[in-house]
Design goal:
The chain has helices at 2-20, 36-52, 65-73, 88-98, 127-134, 161-169, 186-195, 229-233, 253-262, 265-274, and strands spanning 29-34, 57-63, 79-82, 103-111, 113-116, 125-126, 152-156, 181-183, 199-203, 212-213, 216-217, 240-247. The chain is of the alpha/beta class and 280 residues long. It starts with a helix and ends in a 6-residue tail after the last helix.
Length: 280
Amino acid sequence: MKILRKLFILSLLFFLTSNIYPATVVRGRVTVKGSDTMVILVQLLAEEYMTRYRGKIIQVTGGGTGIGVAGLINKVTDIANASRPLTSEERERIKKAWGKEPKEVKIALDGITIYVHPENPIKEISLEQLKSIYTGKVKSWKDFGWEDRPIIVYTRENNSGTYVFFKEHVLDNEDYTNRAQSLPGTGAVVDAVSKERYSIGYGGVAYSKGVKILPVKTDNKSKAYLPTEANIRKGLYPISRALYMYTCNYDDPDVKSFIDWILTPDGQKIVSKVGYFPLK
């Protein structure tokens, strides 16, 4: 917990300073911006990398996948962390800015996890049921055989890659209900769900502390699965995804060295330590 608290404070400081001073790519320092889902993971990776390779400087900030992608488009970051693949429009804008295609690197596996309060008696949930909650068609826990109380719906902000991925793969690109409360990070969603008995939220598997995780099934006839490493590798968990880094500076030795190290067994051990799943 001390490590997570320290990293949260560092992340907040980086976020504040990055909004006060104009950011530019500076050689000799690798800048990484983007996904809040990935920020703790990449901060720990950077910390270990800088410990092993003295003199290397890796600056990591969050803000959401959209912030990282915008940073790459505006050429103010070396690496964009993304919890979803780039869109074709984003790829074109990056290519226009840099004169070349961005390099895509998968660094970890994840399953978008459904959080409810520990006192919630629901045992599992289907994609269709999730869609009905998040589009506002179902508003009460009574429809799930529980108390007749309003479902408090928590979501991420729209610059979040997790928000976009959930909208595409669970809501089938329908709009979120206007009752959904947007929160600035996965940690905030987990914190809110852990305190609100009648709430539901979603986010990365590594953040699921102090909440109940619901197994998810594709439809009402399917078996429900938890977002475990085995279930994600076998393709059984319905809301699985990769976590990405994008860069147009892979030919820079410092950028290449950091990304390549993340893919080594030592780097992938940290992926597991944080709570995500290694690529192999």
